[in-house]
UniProtKB/TrEMBL annotation:
Gene encoding the protein: BTBD17
Organism the protein comes from: Xenoophorus captivus
One Pfam entry name: TRAF_BTBD17
Protein name per its UniProtKB record: BTB/POZ domain-containing protein 17
SMART domains for this protein: BACK (SM00875)
Segments forming domain BACK: 94-194
Length: 401
């Protein structure tokens, strides 16, 4: 079939959109996609009704562009969809876009959707889309350590709600339950779940060994536990939790003005054995830092006075206020989460992991224009960050006698 002409294209689009509604009946009909935004060759095509295409039409137009080999439109739609993942719609479109990307093998769109879901999981859990995700997508998310959410308990409760709504087969339930990191849930919540969670009561035997290991983790010091168990497994690996016991938000007004610093406290670790032990952290942000090779080395752990230069780049350093013997057998990974506002929503824009300085990440805010008040990295002229401290445990090497 010959490709449609410019005059025919809007009518073909409209017909295909109507047809595709039967394929994707659950996606949104909210008009959010302007055709002039998705054509890269300067031609704007729109439905005869008013030049606006609904969010479900993004999939329909993408199919049409693929069918007629309109590569510019296809690429433009992929770019549009990756930039509008946070758009509001009555029933949501994220899951539909992910499933479509998976179906056609569009790795760029698929990875963008998966990253958005992972980095903004707390808001997704509260939305209507959570119940509509497939079991494969659910299991894929549960395996990830880069999920950003309030707590592991929040994830368990959301999983229970998804299972109650979708009623999957037992093997899916068992696999999902075994992907929960019970060691990251405080023991008093685990006791409550054992008694009052119908899901845990029903499948208790499936996860008995994991719960037993979690309670052992909470009752002994991590260094003692490491003598007998492999502490490098996922049950002892935290995700990016936003609750204050794991880190702190940090709002930096006019970030290019000068250096900023602040202190905050976290738990020593998620183990119940360490629940009463706190660590104070010092954080320093500078909008202009010399590269590591150009700076003098730190003379001591708490010395954070590197030279500034107009040609430098933004940097953050996070160090403990004091050293402690409690740090034995554990290292602390720092994660800086950068927030931004898109389509009126505050979402996660970037995530950076490091041990002491964001220099280790190499690309911290490398594309950010922090001097421009309307910068997409700023919210009301401020840089919105959240610092997460994640203890990572190490197995001990026992010398042979």
């Amino acid at each position: 079939m010959a490709a449609p002409t410019s005059d025919q294209f809007p009518h073909v689009c409209e017909a295909l959109v109507r047809e595709e509604m039967n394929v994707f009946p659950s996606v949104s009909t909210e008009p959010i996609l302007n055709a002039t935004d998705i054509f890269t060759d300067g031609h704007s095509h729109a439905t005869p009704g008013g030049g606006i295409v609904a969010s479900y039409a993004a999939i329909s137009l993408h199919r049409l562009a693929s069918k007629y080999h309109v590569w510019g439109l296809q690429q433009g739609l992929t770019q549009y969809m990756t930039q509008h993942l946070s758009s509001d719609s009555p029933t949501g479109h994220m899951v539909s876009w992910y499933n479509y990307a998976l179906q056609i093998g569009d790795t760029t769109l698929r990875d963008s959707c998966l990253q958005y879901l992972s980095w903004n999981l707390s808001s997704v859990l509260q939305s209507g889309e959570w119940g509509s995700i497939s079991k494969d997508l659910l299991l894929s998310l549960l395996q990830r350590s880069d999920l950003i959410l309030q707590s592991e308990l929040e994830l368990y409760e959301a999983l229970e709600a998804w299972i109650n709504q979708n009623q999957p087969v037992s093997t899916t339930v068992e696999t999902a339950l075994r992907a929960v990191r019970y060691g990251m849930i405080p023991p008093h919540h685990l006791f409550r779940l054992q008694r009052h969670s119908p899901l845990m009561v029903k499948y208790y035997e499936t996860i008995r060994d994991l719960l037993y290991l979690a309670f052992q983790f909470h009752s002994a010091s991590p260094i003692q536990l490491a003598k007998y168990f492999d502490v490098n497994c996922s049950i002892f690996t935290p995700r990016n939790y936003l609750s204050l016991s794991w880190g702190s938000p940090w709002i930096i007004n006019n970030p290019t003005r000068d250096d900023r610093s602040f202190s905050f406290q976290t738990q020593l670790g998620p183990s119940g054995h360490d629940s009463s032990k706190k660590v104070t952290w010092n954080a320093l942000f500078s909008p202009r830092w010399l590269p590591l090779i150009a700076r003098s080395t730190y003379t001591e752990l708490g010395a954070m006075q590197p030279t500034r230069t107009e040609g430098g780049r933004p940097r953050i350093i996070v160090t403990p206020a004091t050293s402690s013997p409690n740090f034995a057998g554990v290292s602390f990974q720092k994660t800086v989460i950068v927030m931004a506002k898109q389509q009126g929503k505050v979402i996660v824009r970037h995530v950076y992991n490091f041990h002491q300085s964001t220099e280790e990440a190499g690309d911290f805010l490398v594309d950010a224009d922090l001097q421009r008040r309307a910068s997409e990295y700023l919210i009301d002229s401020s840089l919105y960050l959240h610092i997460v401290i994640k203890p990572l445990y190490h197995s001990l090497l026992v010398a042979r006698k």
